[in-house]
Design a protein that fits this description.
Elements lengths: L7 E4 L5 E4 L8 E2 L12 E2 L5 H9 L3 H15 L3 E8 L5 E6 L5 H10 L1 H15 L1 E8 L6 E7 L4 E3 L11 E4 L15 E4 L7 H11 L3 E3 L2 E2 L15 H4 L2 H18 L5 E5 L1 H8 L2 H4 L2 H19 L13 E3 L5 E3 L1 E5 L9 H17 L3 H4 L13 H14 L1 H7 L1 H10 L6 E4 L1 E4 L9 E4 L1
Antiparallel strand pairs: 1-2, 3-4, 5-6, 5-18, 7-8, 7-12, 7-13, 9-10, 10-11, 14-17, 15-16, 19-20
Helix pairs in contact: 2-4, 2-11, 5-15, 7-11
Length: 443
C-alpha cells in the first residue's frame, strides 16, 4: 500500500495494489546503479541535498522569499473551516459554516494535533516543494487516527521502488542528509508510506496487517513524468540562474562602492606659486624641506575641500605673470566628473530578474507592491489589487483540493460526519461603499 507518483495505478483482487511506472527519469532525482534494491534511498540531487541547496539560494533572494510568503498566505487564507452544502428550495446550492465547537470529536482532535500549525506547515511545504509529508498516528487498535503532524519535506527522502512489488514502501527522515548517509543510522527514522489513492478502509486493513501505528501519506500537486520528487515549475528560476544573478548584484555593487576611486577635484599647483610665496628662500631650501612644504599645502587643500562641513567653500590664491609674461594661477582647483554606474544597468538586471522570479512563483507584482515592470502607473491602484487578489484566490482552488485530501482521509478513517466538508476561507477585498470594513470572507 505504498505510494507512487505514476499515472498508472489500479487495485487488484483482495485490495492489493499494482503499479506500472514510466521509464522516464526526473532531472534532480539520482538513482545510482549500485544502490538499486531495498532499503536504499532515491537521492534528491547529485549530492542528496537539493532542498538544502535551493533554500540556501532562496534565503538570499528577497523577491523569491516574499513571493513564496504571499503564495502561502493566499493558500491558507483565513484558515480551515468546516462547512456543509445543502440545497435551497429553488434548487440552488447553499454552503453554510459549521462551527468546530459543534463537533466535539473533531474539535478535540484539532486541539490535540494543533491543526492550525499543521495546516500552515503542510501549505509551506506544498508551496515550496509541490509535495508534503503529513504523518498519521493511529490508536492501538488501528480504529482511529489519534494525531496528525507534518514531516518537513526538505528532510524526507523516498526509499527506492521495491523491484519485487513495484512500490515505494518507505520514506526516511533525517535532519542532515548527505550523499552517503546510511539509512540504518540512529539519526535516520524509517516511516512507512501509504498511497494517496487508497481508501480509508484499505489504509486501515493495510496498517492492521503490517502492524503500522504511524505512516506518511504524501500529498502532491499533479505531476507530469516524475517518479519520486516533483520538478516544481517555479524552481526554474533557481535552475536557470536568475536567482543567482539577482543575489550577486548586491555583492557587486558593494564591492564597486568600496573599491571605486572617489576623487572629486584635480588640484594644480604651479612651481611659480612657491617661488612667489617664499621668494629667494625657496632656492635655498633642501629637497626634503621643499617636499615637506608641498605636502603641507596639499593636506591643507584636502582638508579645506573635503567633508560635508566644508561644502561650498572657496580657495583664494595669487595670480601672477610667469617669465614669458603670461598670467598664471598659483593654485587651480578643477572639479572632476565622477563616473559611476549611472546608466542603471545593474538595477535593470535586478528588476528584470525579480520579475522573472515573481512570475515563476506566480506572485502578481501588483500584490507585491512593486507594480508591473514597464508600467508607468506601477499598477498600484486599489482596483488593480482587488482584482489581482480575486484572481489569485480563484487559482488557489486546485491547490487547496490537494491540501484538503488530509481532511477527507481523517474524516473517513475516523468515521466523522460524511456530509462535512472542509475548506480554507478567503478574504475578498471590496469597496467601502459595499462593506464598511472593506473585506468579505468567503469559501
Amino acid at each position: 500500500m505504498a505510494t507512487q507518483h505514476s499515472q498508472h495505478l489500479y487495485f487488484g483482487k483482495g485490495g492489493t495494489t499494482a503499479v506500472h511506472f514510466s521509464d522516464s527519469k526526473e532531472s534532480h532525482t539520482v538513482i545510482k546503479p549500485e544502490e538499486k534494491g531495498n532499503n536504499k534511498i532515491a537521492l534528491w540531487g547529485d549530492d542528496n541535498r537539493y532542498p538544502q541547496n535551493f533554500l540556501e539560494t532562496l534565503r538570499k533572494n528577497g523577491a523569491g522569499g516574499t513571493s513564496y510568503r504571499l503564495m502561502k498566505a493566499a493558500h491558507y487564507g483565513q484558515g480551515f473551516r468546516l462547512n456543509r452544502t445543502d440545497q435551497t428550495d429553488d434548487g440552488k446550492e447553499d454552503k453554510s459554516v459549521v462551527p468546530l465547537s459543534s463537533q466535539p470529536d473533531i474539535l478535540h482532535f484539532f486541539n490535540r494535533s494543533k491543526m492550525p500549525r499543521v495546516w500552515t506547515e503542510v501549505i509551506n511545504n506544498l508551496e515550496t516543494w509541490n509535495i508534503a509529508f503529513p504523518e498519521y498516528i493511529l490508536s492501538n487498535d488501528f480504529s482511529k487516527v489519534v494525531s496528525l503532524r507534518n514531516q518537513p519535506t526538505a528532510k524526507m527522502r523516498y526509499e527506492l521502488i521495491n523491484p519485487k512489488t513495484g512500490l515505494i514502501e518507505n520514506a526516511y527522515f533525517c535532519h542532515n542528509w548527505q550523499s552517503g548517509t546510511d539509512v540504518k543510522s540512529e539519526y535516520v527514522q524509517k516511516i512507512p508510506v501509504v498511497d494517496i489513492y487508497a481508501s480509508a478502509e484499505e489504509i486501515k486493513e493495510y496498517c492492521k496487517k503490517n502492524k503500522f501505528h504511524k505512516f506518511v501519506m504524501p500529498i502532491f500537486y499533479p505531476m507530469l513524468d516524475e517518479i519520486y520528487y516533483p520538478e516544481a515549475d517555479h524552481h526554474s528560476v533557481y535552475k536557470n540562474g536568475w536567482m543567482e544573478v539577482v543575489n550577486n548584484i548586491p555583492d557587486f555593487k558593494k564591492s564597486y562602492a568600496k573599491n571605486q576611486l572617489n576623487i572629486k577635484f584635480m588640484v594644480y599647483i604651479s612651481d611659480e606659486y612657491f617661488v612667489k610665496t617664499y621668494g629667494d628662500d625657496w632656492q635655498k631650501y633642501t629637497l626634503d624641506k621643499k617636499k615637506e612644504i608641498r605636502q603641507a599645502l596639499s593636506d591643507a587643500i584636502d582638508n579645506h575641500l573635503s567633508g560635508n562641513a566644508n561644502a561650498g567653500k572657496s580657495i583664494q590664491t595669487t595670480v601672477f605673470k610667469d617669465r614669458e609674461g603670461k598670467w598664471v594661477k598659483g593654485i587651480e582647483v578643477v572639479p572632476l566628473e565622477t563616473k559611476t554606474n549611472s546608466d542603471g544597468t545593474m538595477l535593470l538586471d535586478a528588476s528584470g530578474g525579480n520579475a522573472e522570479i515573481m512570475g515563476a512563483i506566480g506572485a502578481d507584482p501588483v500584490l507585491m507592491g512593486v507594480g508591473i515592470p514597464g508600467n508607468k502607473l506601477n499598477g498600484n491602484g486599489g482596483s488593480n489589487k482587488r482584482e489581482a487578489l480575486s484572481i489569485l484566490n480563484a487559482l488557489m482552488k486546485t491547490k487547496r483540493e490537494t491540501t484538503l485530501e488530509i481532511w477527507r482521509t481523517l474524516r473517513d478513517y475516523n468515521g466523522w460526519d460524511a456530509t462535512l466538508e472542509g475548506d480554507f476561507a478567503v478574504t475578498e477585498l471590496t469597496t467601502l461603499d459595499k462593506n464598511p470594513t472593506g473585506t468579505e470572507n468567503k469559501f
